[in-house]
């Protein structure tokens, strides 16, 4: 089956240095969507992708989305592209994001985050290498390798790459809904490569994601930062209030203290009970990717359930707080605490927000503080769970076996890709998540990397998937 794949694979190997060079160029653009000062770089990254796609013969355009709500900043453009329009071929719509999480060398990186460093053991280190520049470039590389090998591209490819995913996919939902029956009208299925294997050995196909509601709690009081020797003990301190409120949200064992959250969670079904044992996942691999043995649960099933189908609440940081080394004796005048809740079936965004606001307001009230408190959601994205019983997944499973020599696990993912459900609903088509990187890649963390093997074999996988898609009977 898929007889041309050997020629394609050979060409991917031949072009591997060129593909690493393309990743180097992309990593060098610090497209951090959450930092206003980096917004021109995010825009530059969108232009870079458009130009690369045009050079490869795709029809590519930039769709402007206007201003980011509540700011004077332009949202980065959506890159829309089409490669091929043969009525006799299937059409696959792929999505990815070209923005990245923040990164500073001083966070503890061993290398410069925006300089791709190729380590002797094959690690390609740099911000965005695995999340999500490597996988996005994977689609471009697959096109190029087909051209170089002189092999007909097996499908029509529609591409949608955004620059705000790490900030809740601001602006994209309307565009996807608008284009569902226009630009994306002839899509037969959707494929997203933007998550990771559960471990380091067994590839997976993913059919579920958690959602993410991201909140801020703003507490202010004094007119300016104060000397703690002069004002300590006689003024209500915003930081003291905030630490108490944030500390009341969640227990050290992960239990969420907000009433009404766990009541929304779908019960475990008998079918689901048997699902976890067969998954290639060990606590040892988890410890390796965690970089420690500080797991809450000792067993695999509870741990997988915690990641895939239970909500979690994480505290992320405090804007305005003193965080530099040293011992500054300041009382910060205004602090903004950030936390998020990963949501699961059947949690509802608005209902969850109302429960959070009520809890935080009551927790603050109990402090009898004269400071002022505001709580609000910065962005919310829904969870998504789909059926993997579809030719889209069949094709990906065959491609995985061909490239990696093993059957993939069928997994859910603890992270969020806010637009996934929108793609499913706007196109009415099956959505597949086909990850390239592994559990030890350190997405969102310091020293993010993509192993060269995962990048190069991942390019083969994306191309092979398209060949098997072309061969699958419709169901
Ligand atoms: C899984 C994906 N690669 C990812 O990292 N998604 C982000 C998206 C996000 C950011 N805020 C809310 N959602 C994530 O899961 O944190
Ligand atoms: Zn991410
Ligand atoms: Zn991502």
TrEMBL record:
Q: Which InterPro entries match?
A: ArgE/DapE_CS, CNDP/DUG1, Cyt/Met_Dipeptidase, Peptidase_M20, Peptidase_M20_dimer
Identify the stretch annotated as signal peptide in this record: none
Q: Which UniProt keywords apply?
A: Hydrolase, Manganese, Metal-binding, Metalloprotease, Protease
Q: Which cofactor(s) does the record list? A: Mn(2+)
* Site entry: Important for catalytic activity: 227
Which superkingdom heads the taxonomic lineage of this protein's source?
Eukaryota
Record-listed Mn(2+) 1 binding positions: 131, 166, 444
Q: Peptidase M20 dimerisation domain spans which residues?
A: 216-366
What biological process terms from GO does the record include?
proteolysis
Q: Binding residues for Mn(2+) 2, per the UniProt record? A: 97, 131, 194
> Gene3D superfamilies of this UniProt entry?
3.30.70.360, Zn peptidases (3.40.630.10)
Could you say which residues bind substrate here? Answer: 194, 227, 329, 342, 416, 444
Catalytic residues in the record: 99, 165
List the coiled-coil residues: none
Matching CDD domains: M20_dipept_like_CNDP
What's the protein here called? Peptidase M20 dimerisation domain-containing protein
Q: Which organism is it from?
A: Cercophora newfieldiana
